[in-house]
Fold this protein.
Amino acid sequence: MMTPLDNISAAENFMTVLREGRMIRGAYNDIADDGRHLACAYSAAVSGADTTKNCPAAVMPQEVADLTPWIDDAGTACTCSADSGSLEDRAKTCTWHRNLLRYGTVMARWHVLSPDDWTGILRRFRGKCCVSALASAAKVVPPDAPYWPSVQKASIAISDRLLRGEEPSEAEAAEAAKAAKAVVAARVARAAVWAAVAARVALAAVCAAAAAVWAATWAARAADADALIDHFLTLVETAVAKREAATREAMRAEMIGINQSRNRVGKSRAGRLLDGREWNEMPGALT
Ligand SMILES: [Zn+2]
């Protein structure tokens, strides 16, 4: 019987593909000229997948699955030369390799996260996407764009909520939806494409339509995507480290408890031996 895939075995699959130089961007799977199987970040983890739909829950939440191709594809492309050496060496100088190494490493550890932990991470991440999209939009939006003040207001309200790990209110959601519609109605010129992105992020953040968020951030320039990917990985790494530290602390407390009770047993045994009455008994026989 096949063992169901969990995050640890998925991370092993992922790291094998990454180490062997078989990870690709822009397609789920491919075959190299030499016949080797090439896989994207998601398909490497969930072997052979050609969609992120129906991701096994033991591997990662669906929203993280939907985000995974973006982590692979949206940032700066690999800058390694053919003889760049080991994965760890590559990760020192290449952003793409560094991000994927961090992703695979934290995947092997993220089973310690609760559903609430993930909700908090994803809200904060969506908040950051919102901030990033708005900042980029502000650079290119025409100063007199009639839709801009409402996009700005709605996006800020949404991102403030999300960055605190809270879900935006219905009123804030309605504002964002209205602002997004205004942008669409204005048929923004290419220069203002970021305003549309900002509005879509604001809207998607509220609707929790994950795919729309990723689609919006996907359009981000590679440098913006690099910063967002780094932010997402940092959120996950920090939450995992916090959970692991709490587990270590609980184990430490338990060990102290066990040692203290052993000491008490040891003392009582020593007392009985010293009083001479049970000198010929093996210590193991004493209670
Ligand atoms: Zn590289």
